[in-house]
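ok new one. same drill as before - structure tokens go in, u give me an amino acid for every spot. 267 of them this time. try not to just spam alanines like last time pls lmao
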């Protein structure tokens, strides 16, 4: 495919972080590779976020689009409302308080062109302070696998969703975000996609993810975590059986069981 053939829709989820949302939208607008469209789904914000989104829609008619929930429906359902509205052939997902680096999309398109079998590309990312730039840690300290990565991701590799650029048809076939697992829907989607296609990988960090003391990732209850992880563990078994050998599946399942036991011991 030529670069112009990649019509990348970027969806952004928004909830009561207006100032961060403005930075997130601007980070997509400022990409060196122009996205096909920017869809911002607001989850019933009361802090002026909807008004900010409408201002972008006025300034960039037909390019920036808004979806507005009447009340708070939660991240997966809100994100799915944006995914269902996509008109491009590739899609990227950004949380409304995180940032794309300026050349993220350009470098990911180049990686897909260099790996024609791959229909998904992921990258490294930084966890940063609330200022958006002060690094807390790098997600991956060494290059990650690419190609057939199902076994690697199925061993509970978290955090890929926020960097993915994925073939939209595959995301749709995967059923979008699984609303049963709001804390781990990104992990499940990543596993499903890895069962469908090879992945390309860029070790360069191309997303800045803000750390918040009160974020969902730091306020999950042990029981909620356990229930969702058990559900995903159950759901991925047919995917593993259809693609991997018995020894690999056994190794993956041992990793999951070890984590589940640790969760049980916290109760």
């Amino acid at each position: 495919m030529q670069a112009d053939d990649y019509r990348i829709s970027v969806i952004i989820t928004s909830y009561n972080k207006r100032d961060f949302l403005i930075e997130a939208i601007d980070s997509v607008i400022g990409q060196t590779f122009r996205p096909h469209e920017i869809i911002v789904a607001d989850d019933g914000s009361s802090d002026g976020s909807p008004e900010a989104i409408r201002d972008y829609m006025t300034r960039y008619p037909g390019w920036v689009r808004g979806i507005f929930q009447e009340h708070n429906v939660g991240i997966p359902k809100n994100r799915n409302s944006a995914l269902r509205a996509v008109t491009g052939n590739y899609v990227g997902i950004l949380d409304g308080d995180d940032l794309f680096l300026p050349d993220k999309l350009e470098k990911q398109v180049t990686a897909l062109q260099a790996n024609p079998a791959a229909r998904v590309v992921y990258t490294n990312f930084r966890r940063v302070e609330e200022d958006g730039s002060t690094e807390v840690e790098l997600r991956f300290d060494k290059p990650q696998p690419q190609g057939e990565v199902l076994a690697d991701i199925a061993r509970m590799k978290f955090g890929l969703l926020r960097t993915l650029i994925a073939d939209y048809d595959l995301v749709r076939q995967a059923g979008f975000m699984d609303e049963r697992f709001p804390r781990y829907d990104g992990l499940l989607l990543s596993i499903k996609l890895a069962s469908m296609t090879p992945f390309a990988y860029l070790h360069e960090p191309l997303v800045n993810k803000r750390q918040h003391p009160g974020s969902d990732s730091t306020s999950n209850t042990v029981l909620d975590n356990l229930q969702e992880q058990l559900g995903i563990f159950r759901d991925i078994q047919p995917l593993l059986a259809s693609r991997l050998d018995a020894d690999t599946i056994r190794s993956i399942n041992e990793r999951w069981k070890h984590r589940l036991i640790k969760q049980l011991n916290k109760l």
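The mean pLDDT is 95. and btw The radius of gyration is 18 Å.
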